[in-house]
Design a protein that fits this description.
34% helix, 256 residues, Rossmann fold, 8 helices, alpha/beta
Length: 256
């Protein structure tokens, strides 16, 4: 087995020993490991983050293959977090990867001790569940970053980072702000989001099996996914890698 010193030699050359120590000690949780979250997890583990919890209740479907890290013809039908954990452990076998095949909802939120993490990453699709996570995460002691909508986009040059209240041109961010305003429950503190102001339309045909996204164990589409839009790996991956970059940069700058 290769040592951590060998695996992360290039990271250590750039970041230094103290930052690598802090990365190895960092505790990060990612909610949603689809087209965005899976690539975020990949980058964090490849850079040296030592403790990662990944949360997603879906199984890999054929329609995930075009953009999700662990989705291949060989993993279709597997639980996403299990398939991703298996892959991540081939990168760093000593990493502490906690795979939770669950969904974050009002009913399960109490099962997650958000204060026990240093960083919380939101890559959830569901508007309701996303809003709940934002509310809980901004009440916690952890640093929080969120992905806005990554579907219906083509131009990587329009991907940006902004504080949630300053995100422009993203229907998901707008819907979340409206939801918070309606319920008089704006996030307790500011947080950064990855987003794009580009918004294209679906122009291709809809395949009821191939376009439903992830399937449950019985092959059915999860009911919480209200709409399925086209999305591409180069966009979702940049979203995920940018989220990881925010975490890594924060750790490094905090201990410079």
């Amino acid at each position: 087995m290769y040592s951590s010193e060998e695996i992360f030699s290039r990271s250590r050359r750039l970041l230094g020993d103290e930052a690598m120590k802090r990365l190895a000690e960092a505790r990060v949780i990612i909610f949603g490991v689809g087209g965005v979250g899976s690539w975020c997890a990949e980058s964090l583990v490849r850079t040296g983050v030592g403790h990662l919890t990944i949360v997603d209740c879906d199984r890999v479907s054929v329609s995930n293959i075009n953009r999700q890290l662990m989705a291949t013809v060989e993993t279709v039908g597997e639980v996403k977090v299990d398939a991703l954990k298996k892959h991540l452990q081939t990168i760093n076998p000593t990493a502490d990867i906690n795979a939770r095949a669950e969904v974050f909802t009002a009913e399960t939120a109490g099962d997650f001790d958000l204060d026990s993490y240093d960083y919380i990453i939101d890559a959830i699709d569901s508007l309701k569940d996303k809003g709940l996570l934002i509310d809980r995460a901004t009440r916690s002691a952890a640093k929080f970053y969120s992905s806005m909508g990554a579907a219906l986009k083509l131009d990587p040059r329009r991907i940006a980072v902004a504080e949630f209240r300053n995100v422009k041109g993203c229907p998901l961010a707008r819907a979340l702000r409206q939801r918070f305003k309606k319920t008089d429950s704006m996030p307790r503190r500011k947080f950064l989001c990855v987003y794009s102001d580009e918004l294209l339309e679906n122009v291709g045909p809809t395949d009821e099996d191939g376009a439903v996204g992830s399937l449950d164990a019985n092959g059915h589409a999860p009911s919480r996914k209200a709409q399925v839009n086209g999305s591409l790996m180069h966009i979702t991956a940049i979203f995920g890698l940018t989220l990881a970059g925010l975490v890594i940069e924060d750790i490094c700058r905090r201990f410079q």
